[in-house]
């Protein structure tokens, strides 16, 4: 099954948006399989964002992600990677549609509240980076037949 790594960034935690953001993925119908509050060490932030190492904003990005606790989540479902990116909205919150998380709650790329994996491969890679063995739980929601025929 497809899975994605969703992370509420330090600004989302500081601003009290944790419940609101989790609620959007829950209500959509995806399955939460991993969840923790976590202080990201510098090294993990650098590995997570290694594709952006050459960018001028990289040091600021690492500073941002390590500036306070984040909420790490694994979500599962058919099409969850692309759908979660739609729920999150464009990277620059000023371009993000109203109704998306960034569209509703953010104004700057450097404070865009939430992360979502950009491909199923990166979903698996990132869940492996942020969660330890045993922290991701396989379970069957009792409402499953009401979400999928
Ligand atoms: P993520 O879901 O967090 O990966 O965002 P994204 O996939 O929409 O964007 P991308 O992977 O290209 O960039 C990762 C993160 O780096 C963004 O979400 C921003 O927090 C940050 N970022 C990207 N571009 C800029 C920029 O030009 N300036 C600053 N300050 N941060 C940036
Ligand atoms: Mg990205």
UniProtKB/TrEMBL annotation:
**A GO biological-process term:** response to hydrogen peroxide
Which residues belong to any copy of the Nucleoside diphosphate kinase-like domain?
1-138
Cofactor(s) of this protein: Mg(2+)
Entry keyword set: ATP-binding, Kinase, Nucleotide-binding, Transferase
Annotated binding of ATP, by residue:
9, 57, 85, 91, 102, 112
Q: What is its EC number?
A: 2.7.4.6
Location of the active site: 115 (pros-phosphohistidine intermediate)
Reactions catalysed according to its record:
a ribonucleoside 5'-diphosphate + ATP = a ribonucleoside 5'-triphosphate + ADP; a 2'-deoxyribonucleoside 5'-diphosphate + ATP = a 2'-deoxyribonucleoside 5'-triphosphate + ADP
Family, as annotated: Belongs to the NDK family.
Name of the featured protein: Nucleoside diphosphate kinase
**Organism source for this protein?**
Kalanchoe fedtschenkoi (Lavender scallops)
**Lineage, top ranks:** Eukaryota, Viridiplantae, Streptophyta, Embryophyta, Tracheophyta
Q: Which residues of the full protein are shown?
A: 83 to 231 of 231
């Amino acid at each position: 099954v497809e899975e994605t790594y969703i992370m509420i960034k330090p600004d989302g935690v500081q601003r009290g948006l944790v419940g609101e953001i989790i609620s959007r993925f829950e209500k959509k119908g995806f399955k939460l399989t991993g969840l923790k509050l976590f202080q990201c060490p510098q090294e993990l932030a650098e590995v997570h964002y290694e594709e952006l190492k050459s960018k001028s904003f990289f040091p600021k990005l690492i500073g941002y992600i390590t500036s306070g606790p984040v909420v790490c989540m694994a979500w599962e479902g058919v099409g969850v990677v692309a759908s979660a990116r739609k729920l999150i909205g464009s990277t620059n919150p000023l371009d993000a549609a109203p109704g998306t998380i960034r569209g509703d709650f953010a104004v700057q790329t450097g404070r865009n509240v939430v992360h979502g994996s950009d491909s199923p491969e990166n979903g698996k890679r990132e869940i492996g980076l942020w969660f330890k063995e045993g922290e991701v739980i396989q379970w069957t929601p009792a409402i499953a037949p009401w979400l999928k025929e």
